[in-house]
Every structure is written in C-alpha cells, then in structure tokens.
Amino acid sequence: MMGGQTPIFILKEGTTREKGKGAHHNNIAAAKAIADAIRSTLGPRGMDKMLVDSMGDVVITNDGATILKEIDIEHPAAKMLVEVAKTQDAECGDGTTTSVVLAGELLKRAESLLDSNVHPTVIAQGYRMASEKAVDVLEEISMNISNKDVKKLRKIAATALRSKIADAAGDLLSDTSVKSVLAVAEKRGKRYVVDVDNIQIVKKQGGSIDDTELIEGVILDKEPVHSSMPNHVPKPKIALLDSSMEIKKTEVDAKIQIRDPTQLQAFLDEEEATLRGMVDSVVKSGANVVFCQKGIDDLAQHYLAKNGIYTVRRVKKSDMEKLAKATGGEVVTDLSDLKKSMLGSAGKVELRQIGDDKMTFVTGCKNAAAVSILLRGGTEHIVDEMERSLHDALSVVGVALEDGRIAAGGGASAIEIALRLRDYAATIGGREQMAIDAFANAIEIIPKTLAENAGLDSINSILDLRQAHKKGQKYAGLNVHTGKVVNMMDAEVIEPLRVGIQAIQSATEAAVMVLRIDDVIAARAGGGPPGGMPDMGDMD
Ligand SMILES: Nc1ncnc2c1ncn2[C@@H]1O[C@H](COP(=O)(O)OP(=O)(O)O)[C@@H](O)[C@H]1O
Ligand SMILES: [Mg+2]
Questions:
Q1: pLDDT number for residue 177
Q2: Would you say the CB of residue 389 lies under 6 angstroms from ligand 1?
C-alpha cells in the first residue's frame, strides 16, 4: 500500500515491444536481408533464383519484384522493401532490383551513422535533401529521345531484356517490343500515352524463343466447339455473347412427372425448340463467328456447325473485352437483342496449329491497336520468365515514348550522382553533410553490384569509374563483359529517365520510413485469447 506504485498495464498481455536503438537495428537488419537476397540477380550477368513453394511449384526468375512476391515475408520492415519493389513495378515496370538494393544500402549506411550517434531525424533529413539533389542531377544529365528513333527505342528494350535473355533472342524480342508499343501508343496532342495492358501476351510452350511472333490481332487459346465447323472465315461477322446457349437449370430441385410418352416427347421438343431459337437469333443477325463467354449445349453446337458458324465457348472475360475493342463488336448479354449492328468485324478468323495445340487467330481487325505477342520457348519455365522480361521491355519502351527522356545505364548515372552529391554535401555542412555523403556512397552500390555479379573486382571498377567521371566523362559506365569503362550513351546501354528517378525516390522514402520508427509494438502472434491459455499440462 505504501507509495501506491501499482504498475499500469496499457498493452494486452503477450504484446512485445522494442524501443530505440533495438528497434532500429532490428528493422534495418530485416531490410538489409531482403536487399541481400536479391542483389545477386542485378544486371546482365546477375544470377537467377529458383523458388519452390509449399506445393512444390517451381519458379525460376531473375526479376526482383517476382522474387519478393513469391517468398513469404513476415517482418514488417522487410515488407516495406517489398512495397518499394511493387511501387517501382507499377510506375515503370523495371528497376525493381535496383530500387530495393538501393534502399537496403541506404539503411546499411544509416546504421553506421546511428552508431556514431547521429539522430535518425537528421539522417532522414539529409537523405531527403540528397534524394532531391540526385534527381536534379539525373534530370540534368538525361537526354532527349525522339519517338521516331526506333533504333534507340530498341536499345532501351534491349537494356531491360539483356539482363535476362541471351543475345539473338534478345534482338527479336526488343524489336517485337518496340513494334507492339508503337502499335498501341495513342497520340494525345504532342504527347504519347501507352497502356501496355493493351498488348496481349499469349504463352505457348514448345518451339524456341525465335518462333515468337507479333500478331496484329487477338489470339484465343481455344478451338471451335465442333470439329465440322469451318477453320477459316474470311471477312467474319463476329457475335460476342456474354450469355450461355444452354437450357437454364432451375435453382431449386424440381420434378416433372410425365405420365405418357407423348408428354416426354413434347418436353424434349420444347427444349430443342428453345436451343434452335437461340441459334436462329445468331443466324438471323448475319453472324458467321460466335465468341461465347459461357457454355454451349451440345445440340446448339450441332445447329451452329450445321450453319457453318465458327463458334468458340468459354472465352475469358478479359479476352472478350479485347475482342470487343479490336473488332468494334458489342458484347451481348441477351441473345434476343442480337442485331447486325452489334457484330464485330475483322480481316479473318482462322484456326492455326501452334505446337501441339490449335489456337484461334482474329487478325486484320478494325482497330489496329490490337496487338498480341505469341511467346514461344522450350519449357514452361523459359516461357514464364520470358513473359516477365517482355513485360519489363514493353514497359520501358512505353515509358520512354511517353516521357521522351533517357538516362545512361551500366552504373554511369549512379557514379555521376555520387560525385556531385559529395560536392553538394560540402556546401551543406553540419550533420546533414554526413548523411548526404552516406547517400553518395550508398548509390554506388549499383555499379559495385554490377561489377561483383560480373565477377569483376568491384573496388577497382568503382575507382576506375570515379576517375573517369572526375575527368568529366559523365556517361562512363561499366562494360560488364570486358570490365572496361566505356561511354554508356555510345554503347547504347540506356534506360528511361523515369526508372532512375522512381528508384531513387522510392528507395529514399522506404529508408526514411524505416528510420523514423523507434518503437515497435507487436501483438502476440496467433491472436490467442487475452492472457493466454491456462496451463493445461496436467489436465487429463
Ligand atoms: N549491357 C549492359 N552493361 C552494363 N550494365 C547493364 C547492361 N544492361 C543492363 N545493365 C544494367 O543492369 C541494371 C538492371 O539490372 P536488372 O537485373 O534488370 O535489375 P532491375 O530489376 O533493377 O531492372 C541497370 O543498372 C542497367 O543499367
Ligand atoms: Mg531490369
């Protein structure tokens, strides 16, 4: 009773709490672990990771965003780095590994500053200043690219692809990427807008990467429902149906008692008449191709075949939308509404043999912006990884076309930024100067890692690069094959400016966010009952 010092509990029992330095070190260690996990994949000579999930499914990839998406991450600070990769992927489609590796390095450098008693707020402030300056420098040394410069656009695609795909196939894919992006690019005033989602990527295992084709139109991985349907329809009139061509089943179980055989016949006749009516609506509209999102009854299939109508059922919703856009047709929900004016048109619809399967090709569409890439490759893993690389390549070409600005790759931009940040730090002074210097050192992790992954001596490489930049060679970067320092603009290792800017900004934001946390209060894992379960050890 004396003194009345009863402890006050404000947190639920079982809650853990970590404060101050402990919280910082723990969070930074987790973030660094994430960055370290994907570092070895960076650049053209980076390695792949094989990820095996709990079901035993295997993914082989070099793509930072994919690796982080596939592995289960528990730690909250580590999850923030995963967010960095996601943001980078959403904004630019490329540079995910770069952004995460940079965030990890910023935190590693911050840790040494914390150890020498620099306050986290000061570090955060210094990092923000450095990030702004870095973006200014990058903008200043970036270059214009004309939307007509197809050769350069191909190089941008190649830089994004090169880190993933061998040379010859890389050229074909770079070319395919540029062609398809140019096909879907919309001109609005003086600017281009590119939505790469308009490019359909269809994967078909078998053949080799060189068999990859750009198709001006839509591809469906489906064949007609009936073998006697035509497999080639020139100048098709296409009906797009969102309803099934089946007799509707009742929701509740119903019994119909039939007492004499004529009744049964009448009942069957009625069903048949309904299906026939559905097919008649199609025929009457003048359609000779049907793409149906739902199911089609056998009898309806038979009538459709008899009328020579090319019919595909269970088409994916996303493909229906693409078909509507490409052919100018309208998706019809009620068959009885189907009119001639709602039909789509194209040059032809045909069935083609691809590998072991048959696929439907809708080409010569009304809307030329409908393009598809038929991706081929020896194994499922190759095709999957190619799809991811192609996504990067399409994105960077799109971004370059939209923004019209490019920066030098191969670590050139990072070294130039580091050089100028050190000069800038000297003009700031105080403790922020230390943080800006730390930022400059951190950004050199990009060329350092490129060199390491290429089996080069990373310290020598950095020294050579710094020396070249000191002499004013602002585009000097690393040829990862020879280890020589070369002009990256001349070597055409180029990237959209936006990829670099976004990587700097999101890495800084994540690092600052982790630094500003000095208290981690975690609820008990598993969310058991308050106070935990009583000890049941000696209960029988
Ligand atoms: N031919 C090349 N020579 C040197 N560096 C290259 C080359 N091609 C790409 N790079 C560099 O590789 C890095 C990108 O590697 P990548 O594995 O694609 O990671 P990210 O997920 O960050 O895009 C960039 O820094 C880029 O400049
Ligand atoms: Mg990349």
A1: 94
A2: no
If you search the block for the tokens 């602002």, which residue do you land on? Answer: 474
- Mind telling me the catalytic residues? 63, 96-97, 392
Which conformational region is residue 527 in: left (phi greater than 0), alpha (psi within -120 to 50 degrees), or beta?
Answer: left
Q: Give tens-digit pLDDT for 348-357.
A: 999 999 888 8
For position 4, what pLDDT does the model report? 63
Instruction: Say if residue 536's pLDDT is above 50.
Output: no
Neighbour-count burial of 207, counting CB atoms closer than 10 A to its CB (0-12 exposed, 13-18 middle, 19+ buried): middle
According to DSSP, residue 430 is labeled H
- Ligand 1, atom 9, lies closest to the CA of 159
What's the CA gap between 398 and 181, in Å, rounded? Answer: 6
Where residue 533 falls among pLDDT bands split at 50, 70, 90? very low
Please indicate whether residue 446, judged by its CB atom, sits closer than 6 Å to ligand 1: yes
pTM of the model: 0.85
Residue 413 Cβ < 6 Å to ligand 1: no
Q: Residues 154, 156, 160, 164: what is their CA dihedral angle, to the nearest 10 degrees?
A: 40
Q: Which ligand is nearest to the CA of 507?
A: 1
**pLDDT-wise least confident of 377-391, 439-453, 502-516:** 377-391
- Cα of 33 vs centre of ligand 1, distance in Å, is 21
User: DSSP letter string over 116-132?
Assistant: TT--HHHHHHHHHHHHH
Q: Which amino acid is at 457?
A: D
Q: Give the ligand 1 atom nearest the CA of 99.
A: 22
pLDDT tens figures, 202-213: 998 888 888 898
Residue of the nearest CA to atom 27 in ligand 1?
409
Instruction: Judge if the beta carbon of residue 415 lies within 6 A of ligand 1.
Output: no
* DSSP, residue by residue, 267-305: HHHHHHHHHHHHHHHHHHHT-SEEEESS-B-HHHHHHHH
